């Protein structure tokens, strides 16, 4: 007998939601280890305008290299909605700030060191160029686009995340393949008449498997919401 595709699809949907939220371990009160010390990464192989890609377990984080160990990247962050103090905003984004930024749809395009951006992960350079072929802009153009956008910005899990930012800067058009995969999964569940049951199963699975915490309760809130909006 064939296995029921609904629980499998629900599990995949949960994974994609976590992917889009970009949850990652952070220091400063979140219980994580501090980022690698300066010099951990060999920045001599990076060129201004390069698209840096850091694969994680459930998501990929993206940034544009600006030179001199600086990376521009988009991060959900609640703080820019309350203050314009650059010193406060420039501090490492904690998980609390990140989750609240996702909920309130606020973010900042910030400039961090390579160490703070990658946070110990491996870095791929211009890995997406093969997908865009002749659409790659000049390196200086990509870097200048990133620099002009630095500051507070709106955030959307589906329409304006870190991948949209880097593809706009380097290829001229905001695209997110992670979002496309997520939407395909949502459509697959919605097409099944038991989609409501699937959303409940995902919510329960996220709590049972991942524990009751902001990073896990957020998907349980969004899953039924997305299914209800699309229904």
From TrEMBL:
Any one GO biological process: retinol metabolic process
Pathway it works in: Cofactor metabolism; retinol metabolism
EC number: 2.3.1.135
Domain LRAT positions: 51-178
Membrane topology: Single-pass membrane protein
Annotated catalytic residues: 162 (acyl-thioester intermediate)
Transmembrane intervals: 196-229
Alphabetical list of Pfam families matching this protein: LRAT
A single MF term (Gene Ontology): phosphatidylcholine-retinol O-acyltransferase activity
Keyword terms, alphabetized: Acyltransferase, Cytoplasm, Endoplasmic reticulum, Endosome, Lipid metabolism, Membrane, Sensory transduction, Signal, Transferase, Transmembrane, Transmembrane helix, Vision
Class of enzymatic activity (EC top level): transferase
Compartments in which it is found: Cytoplasm, Perinuclear region; Endoplasmic reticulum membrane; Late endosome; Rough endoplasmic reticulum
Identification of the protein by name: Lecithin retinol acyltransferase
Species the sequence originates in: Pelecanoides urinatrix (Common diving petrel)
């Amino acid at each position: 007998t064939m296995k029921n595709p609904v629980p499998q699809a629900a599990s995949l949907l949960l994974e994609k939601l976590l992917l889009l939220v970009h949850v990652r371990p952070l220091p400063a009160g979140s219980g994580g280890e501090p980022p690698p010390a300066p010099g951990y990464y060999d920045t001599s192989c990076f060129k201004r305008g390069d698209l840096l890609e850091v694969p994680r377990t459930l998501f990929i984080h993206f940034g544009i290299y600006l030179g001199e160990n600086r990376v521009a990247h988009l991060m959900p962050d609640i703080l820019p909605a309350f203050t314009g103090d650059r010193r406060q905003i420039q501090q490492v984004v904690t998980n609390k700030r990140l989750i609240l930024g996702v909920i309130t749809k606020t973010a900042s395009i910030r400039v961090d060191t390579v160490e703070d951006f990658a946070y110990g992960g491996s870095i791929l350079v211009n890995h997406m160029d093969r997908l865009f072929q002749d659409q790659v802009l000049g390196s200086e153009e990509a870097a200048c686009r990133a620099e002009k956008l630095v500051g507070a910005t709106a955030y959307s899990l589906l329409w304006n995340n870190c991948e949209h930012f880097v593809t706009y800067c380097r290829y001229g058009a905001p695209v997110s393949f992670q979002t496309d995969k997520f939407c395909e999964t949502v459509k697959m569940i919605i097409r099944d008449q038991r989609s409501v049951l699937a959303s409940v199963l995902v919510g329960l699975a996220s709590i049972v498997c991942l524990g009751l915490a902001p990073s896990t309760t957020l998907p349980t809130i969004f899953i039924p919401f997305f299914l209800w909006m699309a229904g």
